[in-house]
Amino acid sequence: MRAHVAIGLVAVVLAAACLVAGRALAVDPPSCAVPDNLLFVDNNLNRVAAAVAKQRKLAIAVFGTGSSTLTGTDGPNQAYPARLGEALNQKLSNVMVRVASRTKAGQTADIMRRSMTDLLRDEKPDLVIWQTGTVDAIRRVEVDEFRVALDTGVEALQAGGADVILMNMQYSPRTESMIAVGPYVDEMRAVAQLRDVPQFDRFAIMRYWADEGAFDFYATGRDTGLAQRVHDCLGRALGALVVESGHLQSFVNKTNR
Amino acid sequence: MHAPVVTTGRDLRLDLFRGIALWLIYLDHIPSNVVSWITIRNFGFSDATEIFIFISGYTAAFVYGRAMRERGIVVAGARILRRAWQIYVAHIFLFAIYMAEISYVATSFDNPLYAEEMNILDFLKQPDMTIVQALLLKFKPVNMDILPLYIILLLLFPPVLWLLQRAPTWALGASLALYVLTWQFGWNLPAYPDGTWYFNPFAWQLLFVFGAWCALGGAKRLAPVLQSKATTAIAILYLGFAFVIALSWYLPDQAIVPHWLEDLIYPIDKTNLDVLRFAHFLALAALTVRFVPRTWPMLSSWVLYPAILCGQHSLEIFCLGVFLSFAGHFALVEISGAFWMQVVISLLGIIAMIGTAALVTWYKDLEGRSPGSRQKPPDADLAGGEA
């Protein structure tokens, strides 16, 4: 659980940094704010920047599995891809932001990477947010295989003209002893670094929320409200990452800055 | 380590370090446990698994090697296979506990946020496949990979032990060759639902056979090398290097390790016992042998006795540790995951392991003394702990 320790360390350091420096927080509302250091990365989204600058348009495709969706009739509107679109359209009022959600439950990274060409052809995205890893961890796919799948998938997306954000697994305390996500979290971080793409560290962010008491992820009940609030917060945080890494600050509404 | 081929004295260092390894495995198996910061995997490449497998190989050769010399290959082979069977039964017992845990979670946990994670429970929907695959050692839940590896290693051990006693160098060479060929051709055993074994037996056998080789005279042959200053210096340098690399895992600023070095060393493959991990274990072992002599007075002091006790009943304590790590995580989820709670759970678990080891010792003494029981050769089964 190297990653857990690392994340724990990061969280402690960040919490201390926030207390001492009173740092500005990245997203509203404050109940699920994410510290800058946990959200923002050095990698850039150059195609996003170009698309917005030239056409005032931004096409995003979320390519994910079950944890990118919510059930229920209103599920699609409440899940984080839709919340991301909402957040970005609010923030960037002069830019047409379209977020397509392509999700299929139960797919490993290796299965997903095979349909990258279809994804690029159908959605013509400037940015693909690739959420993966949970199914691999459940099925205990070899980490080597997982890394290769991620790597070739990202390569295909980049070759097809899209920027990429990699999104890792949810923090799920109750299933921690049954699903070992640690090695997969590590591999994804390594691939993101190697391929110079931003990673949305959903695992660390949700863990930070748990430690801060923003959400009770231990809750057992069928609480759709919790799931919706979490997805709303994930969507906002993702939006902040897209603005930061795509250098879109100059397009942000004055009122939203 | 000395080669106690003819002596009857136990090398308590084996018990001590196996006991410590069992504690570390327990701590590492509790997810998000703060106390697992202290375990060796955070300070270098190898972890407690290497220690456990090496010492298991060493003691297996020590115990069954003597049986093979005194009573022949059939008796020794039969005893090895009986041991493998005991471990298999223990593994299936742990699997039953795992099934109980996920069944509980399946019925009590219904959070829509984690609909995807709940797919882990799909295994419950097809018990025919899952249970049969578990019996075949193909379906192995998280943290239940070490015993199946141990079972395979023991199943193949009788001929290996025979060869080790006839031509130790050849046996070790064959083991190394298998390791190299495994890396070359990517051999491994299949797992369920897909993939391969988490601990590749064809790679990890090298550590087990190396342990056995050391027990049967190899350690004596290595002694001049191990006592030399050069070896000590190289071992210290290598451990320092591994420590710096390990440090870089926890400091998000990657500037510590240059890119060319990253390309060279990563990935550090646990499944196939990466050479870096093996070397890290060798360095640890070399320093241990150098600075902890067999006659170290502390070995008979009460301070280390609890660890030694645990190491002498490794199978029982290992299984208990796996169970306790489940139970400990359960308590952290259901009661509180606070820092103090993690410390308390960690300590309670280790105390339970020590208490159980003492109880097992008491039972074995009882059986040993009871009238009509087979008179065992002095110290044979317990020499250096069980195999």
Q: What would you say this structure looks like, in words?
A:
Chain A has helices at 2-21, 36-39, 46-55, 75-78, 80-91, 109-113, 116-123, 134-139, 143-159, 182-194, 202-212, 224-245; strands at residues 57-64, 96-103, 127-131, 163-167, 199-200. Chain A is α/β, with parallel strands linked by helices. Chain A is globular and about 50 Å long. Residues 17-30 of chain A have low confidence and may be disordered. With 387 residues, chain B is mostly helical. Chain B is built from 14 helices and no strands. In chain B, helix 1 (12-29) crosses helix 12 (305-312), helix 5 (146-155) crosses helix 8 (201-227) and helix 12 (305-312) packs across helix 14. Chain B is globular. The interface between A and B is large, with 51 and 51 residues.
Question: How would you summarize what this structure contains?
Answer:
The complex is a heterodimer of chains A (257) and B (387). Chain A is an alpha/beta fold and 257 residues long. Chain A is built from twelve helices and five strands.
- Helix-strand sequence of chain B: HHHHHHHHHHHHHH
Q: What is the residue-mean pLDDT of chain A, rounded to a whole number?
A: 86
Number of helices of chain A: 12
Approximate strand percentage of chain A: 5-15%
How many distinct beta strands of chain A?
Answer: 5
Helix content of chain A: 40-55%
Question: What does the secondary structure layout of this molecule look like, with pairings?
Answer:
The complex is a heterodimer of chains A (257) and B (387).
Chain A: H1 2-21, H2 36-39, H3 46-55, E1 57-64, H4 75-78, H5 80-91, E2 96-103, H6 109-113, H7 116-123, E3 127-131, H8 134-139, H9 143-159, E4 163-167, H10 182-194, E5 199-200, H11 202-212, H12 224-245
Parallel strand pairs in A: 1-2, 1-3, 3-4, 4-5
Helix pairs in contact in A: 5-12, 9-10
Chain B: H1 12-29, H2 48-108, H3 122-125, H4 127-135, H5 146-155, H6 157-166, H7 168-185, H8 201-227, H9 229-250, H10 259-265, H11 275-291, H12 305-312, H13 314-334, H14 339-369
